[in-house]
Amino acid sequence: MTRILGIDPGLDGAIAVLTVDGELVEVHDTPTLEDGAKGRRAVNPALLASIIYSTQARAAYCELVTARPTDSKAGAFGFGRTRGIIEGVCAAAGIPLTMVAPVTWKRAANIAPGKENKDSARSEAIRRWPVQASLFARKCDCDRAEAALIAVAGMQKLTNSKESR
Prior knowledge:
The protein is 44% helix and 19% strand. It contains five helices and seven strands; from the N terminus they run βββββαβαβααα. The strands form two sheets. The protein has a five-stranded mixed beta sheet with strand order 3-2-1-6-7. Strands 4-5 form a two-stranded antiparallel sheet. A hairpin with an 8-residue loop joins strand 4 (32-33) and strand 5. Helix 1 (45-55) packs parallel to helix 2 and helix 3 packs across helix 5. The chain is globular.
């Protein structure tokens, strides 16, 4: 069974695993440890690799995010480090990684752009996968929902590219 990953990067992010038919298989919170500079929380590459390798995915789609002008230097560096870890683990696993702009995956999921619509992602995820609604029950589960919806947008992109051949 072909599996696809959706990745919402960041320390509070998540990795969603879907089949090409859109069935939600599993969701993992991004593994972090307080082992960064000055004991700051950071993505743990070994734990992330363990999750990604175990999925046996054929493709991965990750939200394309960049540092914002309001980010501190340390915060921006940490965010870039997280993206590098995701890219490196996917490359080492032989999983092609495609970056998806927030506006693209939100359009595919019928969610208005903007941070204030994070709960809309949870609502949409619960609507699409009602049997697994408990995965998205808490307000802090919005990143899980976003990861799953990023995978859906990636699948649509994959389907569209196959149809255009």
